[in-house]
Design brief:
The chain has an 8-stranded mixed beta sheet, sandwiched between helices. The chain is 39% helix and 18% strand. Strand 3, helix 2 and strand 4 form a beta-alpha-beta unit. The chain is built from 9 helices and 8 strands. By secondary structure, it is an alpha/beta fold.
């Protein structure tokens, strides 16, 4: 399979999943969303970090507290599209609860650059201390944080929580999200035909994983299994034992974008390492989690519960 075909399929599927997720909004979801207004606080947009990226900061109305919890929410878009503004309603809801909230952009892969998931994850790592410092400059001292996201943003959030939390400027006390790929084993990626153990499938796997991992992977490395070490830097499930952050996640068993089998490895890692976690399987849903409303509601209820438990607003 030519590399461009493999990449286009992956990108197209992620984009379709993102569209389906934002297009369908059940009634219960209004409890976990808000429309931004100045009554909620102050929004500062397009604060620069790095060479070309920006973030938005949402500051709650009450600025009198000694310390605040910070929630980072990273946008979806298949690592190739999307923007921090896509999550304004989520960020506004978090701010309405009394948290400092931030949406962070990262370099998107395009036809003219070779941005990888590894690069994007490192950009998020670079951005977070700047977010914390900017909040302090605005009079909001951060003492703990949560990192979260959806789809591609969820993958990046998990990488930060499990791989990079030990380097965070404040303790990472919680992570949440949905349908983000947590690891890269060809046997799990059957939705893209990478599990066939043929020359064609090994070439396709090497191409796709090279693009995502930001490192050259050969079909021979796919065959002998050595590719897994090269994919470890962006495989969040592989880092759980190093940093057992409380976790709430949701995955659709019918997902044709993020391979559901990969999420089972995350679940196993959370269980084996004694993490305080909740893992929701939606048996009739794909990447948009659109067909199991009651379970989706339970997932959001758990997110709210864990926020209140690990980042109480005093």
């Amino acid at each position: 399979m030519p590399i461009w075909v493999c990449i286009l399929i992956f990108i197209g599927a992620f984009f379709a999943g993102m569209i389906s997720k934002v297009a369908i909004k059940p009634a219960w979801s209004t409890k976990y969303t808000a429309t931004w207004s100045e009554e909620l606080g102050t929004k500062i947009t397009d604060i620069s970090y790095g060479e070309a990226n920006k973030f938005d900061l949402y500051l709650p109305k009450d600025s009198t507290k000694d310390t605040y919890g910070l929630v980072i929410y990273l946008h979806a878009g298949g690592f190739t599209s999307g923007d921090k503004t896509d999550d304004e309603n989520m960020l506004a809801w978090l701010c309405s609860k009394g948290y400092v909230a931030a949406g962070i952009n990262y370099t998107l892969r395009t036809d003219t650059n070779n941005a990888s998931v590894l690069l994007q994850s490192n950009e998020i790592k670079e951005a977070i201390p700047i977010v914390v410092e900017e909040a302090k400059n605005q009079g909001y001292n951060i003492d703990k944080m949560t990192v979260a996201g959806g789809s591609a943003g969820h993958a990046l959030a998990m990488i930060y929580a499990y791989r990079d939390a030990q380097d965070a400027p404040v303790p990472v006390v919680f992570t949440f999200g949905a349908v983000g790929p947590s690891c890269f084993y060809v046997e799990d990626w059957g939705v893209y035909g990478l599990d066939q153990n043929t020359e064609e499938s090994r070439i396709a796997a090497a191409n796709l994983f090279s693009v995502m991992g930001g490192v050259e992977i050969t079909p021979e490395e796919i065959q002998n299994g050595s590719y897994t070490e090269k994919m470890k830097p962006i495989s969040a499930a592989e880092w759980v034992s190093k940093n057992p952050i409380p976790t709430v996640v949701a995955y659709g068993t019918c997902d044709k974008v993020q391979p559901f089998l990969a999420s089972l490895r995350l679940k196993e890692a959370l269980e084996d390492n004694g993490v305080d976690y909740k893992y929701y399987e939606l048996p009739h849903s794909g990447h948009g989690l659109q067909n199991d409303n009651r379970i989706s509601e339970q997932w959001m209820e758990s997110i709210d519960e864990y926020l209140n438990k690990y980042m109480p607003v005093n």
